[in-house]
Amino acid sequence: MRWRGERESDNVEDRRGMSMSRGVKVGGIGGLGLVAVVVIGMFLGVNPTDLLQGISNMQDSSVSVDRQIGSPAANDDMRKFVAVVLGETEDVWGAAFRQSGSTYHEPKLVLFSGAVESACGMAGSATGPFYCPGDQKVYLDLSFFEEMRSRFGVSGDFAQAYVIAHEVGHHVQNLSGILGKVSQLQSRSSTTVKNRLSVMMELQADCLSGVWAHQANKNRRILEAGDIEEGLNAASAIGDDRIQKMSRGYVVPDAFTHGSAEQRVRWFKAGFEGGTIESCDTFNADRL
User: Fold this and answer.
1) Is residue 180 over pLDDT 80?
2) Could you tell me the residue range of the domain that residue 84 belongs to?
3) pLDDT (tens digit, 9 = 90+) per residue, 100-152?
4) Rounded distance, CA 218 to CA 220, Å?
5) What is the pairing mode between strands 121-124 and 108-111?
6) 1 in a domain, yes or no?
7) How many domains, in total, are found in the chain?
8) Is residue 6 situated within a structural domain?
9) Could you give the C-alpha distances from 208 to 42, 246, 267, 272, in angstroms and in order?
């Protein structure tokens, strides 16, 4: 992926190396927070129900997090990469929103180490990258990219860019009102329907990441040989069916929250080949 020398976003908030004091209070979680929990840990196969239970246990209690993380200097190159990718998403979605007569409000991307406090509550590195609609920020521990390589066998700069673009896709959904509508529907739905709505939302974010790749490459030729294959490998590796097989030894389709490997690959390709938001209507598609 061609990224060196390109514009870096000013919206990267670097909290690495920060020491979190003891006694951090974790408040309650509202409707938007619930949506954020659903989208947390897209790659690590974290069950949203387990996350909700964990947050419930943390509410109204003090969280002891008091460790000094190593200096961020070691990851300066990765920080630049993240800032460039975020800048590319700003350019693509800024233009798309202007064409539709609206304004794209750029999200912040928070780099952290170990644990972080967001408007959606406390989160540790194990939850993976996530988007919190409560503060409109994407949260990323760079150690996750090593987790991708060691656990899922996925590597490459475009695979990493796909992770960021997927989370920014949730921000696009938030600005478009989709996250709020999904949250409302989930609040009065059965578990099976909630999961299906979550799958639709996640597949749409995959598709939106494909739209970003299409437009960024059209504008600045960012793609090199093998990049799309890296993205497709990442999408395939973290399908619910593969993660369940790894963690449980068997697959439960009704418990899917992000989509199967085949679905994730197909919707990323739909976005990349279509190149428009209209290519990503997972909620009215005849086939997920």
Assistant:
1) yes
2) 12-284
3) 999 999 999 999 999 999 999 999 988 889 999 999 999 999 999 998 899 88
4) 6
5) unpaired
6) no
7) 1
8) no
9) 15, 27, 9, 8
Report the alpha-carbon distance of residue 35 to residue 164 in Å, rounded. 18
2 part of a folded domain? no
Strand order in the sheet with 108-111: 12-14, 108-111, 137-140, 130-132
Mind listing the pLDDT tens digit for each residue in 209-258?
999 999 999 999 999 999 999 999 888 887 887 788 778 888 888 888 89
Strand partners, 62: 25
Residue 233 CA to residue 155 CA, distance in Å, equals 9
The tens digit of pLDDT for each residue in 254-274 reads 888 899 999 999 999 999 999
* Element containing residue 153 per DSSP (H, E): none
Does any domain span residue 118?
Answer: yes
Per-residue pLDDT tens for 10-36? 999 999 977 555 444 433 333 444 444
DSSP H stretches of helix in the chain? 31-39, 48-58, 76-99, 143-152, 157-175, 178-187, 191-220, 227-237, 240-247, 261-274
- Closest listed residue to residue 88, CA positions, set 166, 169, 7: 7
pTM above 0.85, yes or no: no
